[in-house]
Specification:
By secondary structure, the chain is mainly alpha-helical. The protein has seven helices and no strands. The chain has helices at residues 20-39, 45-67, 72-99, 110-119, 126-134, 138-170, 173-185.
Amino acid sequence: MNDLNPEPLIPPHGGYRELKSYQMSEIVYDATVVFCNRFINIRSRTHDQMVQAARSGKQNIAEGSMASGTSKKMELKLVGVARASLEELLLDYQDFLRQKRLELWKKEDPRAKKVRELCWKENRSYSTYKTYFEESSPEIAANAALCLIHQANYLLDQQLRALEKTFVEEGGFTEKLYRVRSQVRNQPWKK
């Protein structure tokens, strides 16, 4: 911006529904609700913990995106919390498989590859994976969930690196406040 038109103080923000990390986290949340309702006792603390971890992953991405207009630091923190919540959920699914003595698919397992391939489809949503969670065995559903969480975590890791780079190069809201105030102060007095 030039001296007569300082940069806007609060930049465009939000738009989280367009983020692939949010979209994948929403699918993980929907899948986890169905998985837990089918395979984990609703009165179990694990049921609640898994659903809340999945919800936290999704919600913190949205909250971070909305906070980004006035706090890049808060955005970074909340996206980090989303990533941590999904890691917690990942461990819950792995625990489920181990405790039930069910197979944990390896990364190169053809079944895992098939789920991962769906992740890159255009316009994917929970319905893309619906049969894995609503019609499959606990083993298949848990492994499919793990594939989705790995994809969401990959996207969040990329997002965190990009946010960190931007923060280092451009600074946060406090630096922007200073720049805008300096621009205004340096304008010639209007007559």
